[in-house]
Amino acid sequence: MNMLKALFQLLLVFCIQASSANDWPKFDLTRTDQLKALNAQAIDISHDPVYSSAKKYQAYALADILSQLSITGDQDAADWVIVFTARDGYKVAMSYKDALSEPGFIAFKDLAAGSDNWQPFQFGKKTITPEPYYLVWPKAGLDKWQYPWPFQLTSIALEPASSYYGKAAPANIKNADVKKGFVLFSRYCIRCHSVNLAGGSVGPELNIPKNISEYFQENELSGFIRNASTYRAGTQMPSFENLLSVHDTQLIIDYLKQKKLEKDP
Ligand code: HEC
Q1: Which of 186, 188, 190, 192 for mutating ligand 1's site (highest number of atoms within 8 Å of CB)?
Q2: Which of 73, 101, 177, 192 is the most exposed place for a label (fewest CB within 10 A)?
């Protein structure tokens, strides 16, 4: 009996998750009828980070896909993220506002690959291709954290940042610095660190049970975040010195300190 009850509850949880995930506007890249209505074009990439070389792709403009996904009411684009989902379920999010500000493309064919559509590349120990869809940015020198290059994509969805990041999102967004700090944290940190157990697990959780500001000397925090290797030899945390100013890290710290008041494991 108890087992049945547990099973039922589990099913219920799955149903709730499935229905809330489906509520957000989504473009299914596997539905070719939707794609065929768009204009394909050849684009040049001078600096493809996956192949470390110049590339030419056949692609659809991301803006054309986004124009089919509209956000409801008078909501601010800055409060939404675009969620790119790959074939294996891996998700990458970026700010909707950023995506509207730079021309991105959804590539579906490598023009040097002949009839195969794609050329293979080394990914860890595997040899894979970006098939079926790959997000690329023709403008050289864009920040790859802000403008990610995910591949093997199957869908593109719009979702409020507060929903996608869940309990890591600040409940108090009246404070402009906390809000800006969270934008930076979600761009550079959340893929490795969780806050209130929401986020990545490569690095440590930063709020539960103790907030980082409760045991880490605050005047050292900014230095650590900008360049962890000057504190710990062999650290796995990348350097953010060239991407984040001292002011930026202070905004991230403002956000993290706000979460001390919003502990919710
Ligand atoms: C690629 C993964 C990765 C990213 C991205 C990353 N970190 Fe880390 N971080 C780690 C790892 C791993 C550790 C812990 C061990 C170490 O020092 O290598 C760590 C440690 C920390 C610590 C010290 C925690 C403690 O209790 O010792 C803080 C604070 C921190 N990171 C904040 C940040 C912030 C803020 C960002 C975004 C600007 C960020 N990290 C981005 C991987 C990451």
Answers
A1: 192
A2: 73
Q: Which residue stretches of 26-88 are H helix? A: 32-36, 62-66
φ, ψ at 99 (rounded to 5°): -65, -30
**Which residues sit opposite 55 in a β-bridge?**
45
Q: Which long-range contacts (CB under 8 A, 24 or more apart) does 160-165 make?
A: 160/75, 160/79, 160/80, 160/81, 161/79, 161/80, 161/81, 161/95, 161/186, 162/79, 163/20, 163/24, 164/81, 164/83, 164/93, 165/81, 165/190, 165/198, 165/199
| C-alpha 226 to ligand 1 mean position (Å) | 10
Amino acid identity of residue 138, one-letter, is P
Residue 110's CB is within 10 A of a number of other CB atoms, namely: 21
CA of 97 to the centre of ligand 1 (A): 26
227-265: pLDDT as tens digits: 999 999 999 999 999 999 999 999 999 999 999 999 998
What does the domain layout of the chain look like in residue ranges? 24-163, 165-260
- Dump pLDDT digits (tens) for 138-149: 999 999 999 999
Q: According to the model, what pLDDT value does residue 13 have?
A: 41
Q: How far, in whole angstroms, is CA 53 from its chain's centroid?
A: 24
| Average pLDDT estimate for 36-54 | 95
The CB density around residue 247, as the number of other CB atoms within 10 Å, is 10
Spacing, Cα 81 to ligand 1 middle (Å)? 23
pTM for this entry: 0.89
In CATH terms, the superfamily for domain 165-260 is Cytochrome c-like domain (1.10.760.10)
Give 144-203 pLDDT, tens digit per residue. 999 999 999 999 999 999 999 999 999 987 899 999 999 999 999 999 999 999 999 999
